[in-house]
Amino acid sequence: MADPPGCCRPCATCLLCLYSCQWITAKKEKRKGLRTTKCDCSWFLFLFCVFLFTLVWLYFAIIILNDFHNFNEFIFKQSKLWLDWSLVLLIATAVLVTYSAVLLVLALCLQLCGQPLKLHWLHKILLILTALVVAAAFTGLGIKWAEEWRSARISLQATGPFLHVGIVGGMTLLAWPLATFIYRTRSTGLKVFLLLVYCAVMIALYLAPLGIASPCIMEENQLPPKPALVGHRGAPMLAPENTLMSLHKAVDCDVQVFETDVMVSADGVPFLMHDEEPTRTTNVQAMFPKRTTLNSTTFNWTDLQQLDAGSWFLERRPFPTVQSLSAGDRYQVTKQRIPSLEQALEAAKQSNISIMFDLRPENHSDYQSFVNATLEVILQSGIPLQQVLWLPDGFREQVKQQAPGIQQVYGRKRLQNEKEPLLHVNLPYQDMSSEEIRQYRQDNISVNLYVVNQPWLFSVLWCSGVSSVTTNACQVLKEMKHPIWLLPSSTYLMIWIVVDCASFLAILWAFLLLK
Prior knowledge:
Elements: H1 9-20, H2 26-32, H3 38-63, H4 68-79, H5 85-112, H6 121-144, H7 147-173, H8 175-184, H9 188-207, E1 228-232, H10 244-252, E2 257-264, E3 270-272, H11 284-287, H12 301-305, H13 311-316, H14 327-334, H15 341-351, E4 354-359, H16 367-381, E5 388-390, H17 396-402, E6 407-408, E7 424-428, H18 434-442, E8 446-450, H19 455-464, E9 468-471, H20 474-477, H21 489-514
Parallel strand pairs: 1-2, 1-9, 2-4, 4-5, 5-6, 7-8, 8-9
Antiparallel strand pairs: 2-3
């Protein structure tokens, strides 16, 4: 069989060397009469499936970056080791995708050059290991982080139209090596099978836009107002979380609400702290090495004031943005201490922003005294009560009676036949669909979703009409003046038709030209 035009012998030899790990010239291969066997075809199919498998995992890896800080915190709680595991994830995923993609390109080029697909045993082992690693990653995701499957479904509302175009383009390019293989193979049954599978896949892709639903397919004049920003523990990418510096940085980002977590010290002083143990966000190991595993509520206020609540931020670099801090900001970070709720309320009052908080830990035996101490500080602070958003469910009726002006925020959806209508809800972004968000908006229920860090996710929720989002990346979302993309339905329909028609013509041309 002659080499196709443009496929020189040195190129074919090089391809064989890389794919088969043997330096045998194309001419010698032909003298030996080697051909691509059914086993070789099976390995090529396995290679193609592994490539798709790793590509899907790459998509998931990019999507879960929005929530990866939670994973870093989880690992720290288990091992007391801080590392930005997102870098490890992306590097490992990129290596697996690149390896399988290079092998696939080599195989397709060999097919176009009319050379046998003799995959070396080492590549076979590495492909099997790649498939096992990715399968283990998906299994772990399903067991420990199942909500990310819902995140992936939401992401399709942002990426669906573009994935459709990309997949159609990729499958269209695949028509060339497929046509070459079909015209060269002698098995009629294999020819029919490959053509039927390919045609079925392409028909499904051509009709896929019928099932793509995105809130961002709308007219410009239908776009809801931009959601308000709620600073998650302040501005944790710019300053240590739950500190006064973080609150002020959040104010600079135009947030309307400072979201935080409140605990009560052993001597009855409410203070800001998220973790039950102060190990992650303070230098408690240096100051009180024998008390590092104790609950934060066991410390009195005098002891808590001795802790450095900022230096960890520079040492562990929980976000890449830490590297870009100015010298002045770095100095200010080292001066941060654990703030009391009284100090936070005063800062919120002066900055004219609201404050929303959880009261932790909910299962504490003295939780009612925590509620009483917190309410007392709020009522004595002089902050307008409408600027206080109350999240804790425990003793909520007592709070309503003692401070009726405080806004009650619920961490659940509304119930049927609700006695008292909900005015504010605070939920994970995975828990509400676009349709539910629109319905709540029509019913004048304020919906805040957390934690939203990536522009693509913020865009989807903006188009859906959410009232506000809790974010770590207020400095990023502040700069967004418009969703990442917005397409009128007529424009999207035209793109769909053009892409599908162009693909069909390209496939037809490939099969007619190579015949």
